[in-house]
Each structure stands twice: as C-alpha cells, then as structure tokens.
Amino acid sequence: MIQEKVKVTNGIGLQSRAAATFVQIANKFRAHVWLEINNKKVDGKSILGLMAMGVYDGSIVKITVSGDDEQEAFKHLVDFLRMPFDASMYAKMLEAMPNHNDPEEMERWRKEHPQALQDQGKHTNEETALGE
C-alpha cells in the first residue's frame, strides 16, 4: 500500500472532465484507489465521489493506492494531479495505456513495451512526500 499527501497543481483540481479522466486512469489498474481531503474519503474510481469532495487546484489530498499494480497506478495518478490538465493529451494517453484488468491486453502490451517493465517501480514515495 502506498499512501502520500499530494498537492493538486493541475490547474483545475478534480472538477467534471478532470474527475472523469482521473477515474478513467484509476480504472485502468487493478489496485484500489482512495482520495481523502478534509476528513472525507472516497473511492478514487467513483466520479460522483470525487466531484463531491471539492478538490480544487492547490488542494492537498491524501492518495492511497493498494494492490499488485499499485506502484504504476500511483505514479500515473500523482502525475495527473500535478501536470497541467490537457483533455486531448489525456485522451491519447488513455488510449495508449493498457488495461491492467485484461490479462491478454497486458501480455500484448508487455511484449510490445519491454523497456516499460524495466522502468516500472523506479518511482519512489520520496518524490511525492510533502511532509506534515
């Protein structure tokens, strides 16, 4: 399980399209994802939950990711929260990203992207720590 506080700096927080994109990214992975802000904790794969949280640019959220592909899921989700939101860029990224819930798709992707397997797990929690 990976759990860190992250400052949202994507320019728009998690409102409508950004929340939908976050959920689409989270659903590409088998790992469970939760976000917490102001003592409200929601499933990171629920668009209604995310939109109800009121996460704005500059908010600090606690993200928790747990599961066998947690490292990769964590990296993609934290990057999303930090990078300027660009809907067309994320649409292309999501199209190229394998669905970790589909074993056949993952096997095809691994064969086509052997370098990605070597890079997996290089992201460290220290890169996202904000401190208390």
From TrEMBL:
Top-level taxonomic group: Bacteria
Keyword NADP: no
Name listed for the protein in its UniProt record: Phosphocarrier protein HPr
PROSITE patterns linked: PTS_HPR_DOM
SUPFAM superfamilies reported for this sequence: HPr-like
Segments forming domain HPr: 1-88
Signal peptide location: none
